[in-house]
Amino acid sequence: MDPLPIPTPDGVFLAWYSDRGLSRLEFPRSGRPPNRSWGKPSSAVAAWHRLTTRAVKAVLAGREPTSLPPLDLAAGSPFQQAVWRALCRIAPGATQSYGDIARSVGAPGAARAVGQACGANPIPLLVPCHRVLAAGGKLGGFSGGLDWKRRLLAHEAVWPTRETEP
DNA sequence: AGTTCGGACCGTT
DNA sequence: AACGGTCCGAACT
Residue A129 CA to C5 C1' — how many Å? Predict the structure, then answer.
């Protein structure tokens, strides 16, 4: 367990890697950045981390990342992994509701469970859980804080709480 | 148009 | 057994 830091204008993100790829990404903590990096990462991890860093900075700048590191989602339950994969299929600038995702993973009526799974998403930002809104275009929740959700959606030119219009 | 309330739904701890 | 990043309809303001 050796998180690597990703310094950005918005604080220091932390990235965890397994032998399969990026396994976890954390928003900057309000508190202190401990910054005790121990052990030199393998060259594979270093390469992945460069990709992660580039992707995170791109997203924060309002652009779409050109490439991502391999994502290791194996830690989740089958249901969670299905949800997380469904999230990855939502195009930038598009949104789906929790109920939409539920149907898309073959579990209609599991909207609340989808909400739980989104909250358990280990790689927010790159696995775009912020593109999931509540029914009727309402904002819904976000574990990283609703400010982040609003901001990310704004970058993608999505405006929540809009019921009219196709 | 908007808000609140109540019950139903389903995976996780 | 209890809790969620929900949903829907009904009954209000």
Answer: 9
pLDDT digits (tens, 9 = 90+) for A101-118: 999 999 999 999 999 999
| SS3 label, residue A41 | coil
**What is the predicted pLDDT for the residue at A32?**
62
Residue nearest to nucleotide C6 (CA to C1'): A112
- Specify whether the CB–CB gap between A119 and A101 falls below 8 A: no
- The model's pTM is 0.93
Chain C bases having any atom below 7 Å from a protein CB = 3-8
Name the residue closest to B11, CA to C1': A113
Cα–Cα separations (whole angstroms), residue A7 to A114, A125, A138: 31, 15, 32
A97 CA vs B5 C1’ separation (Å): 22
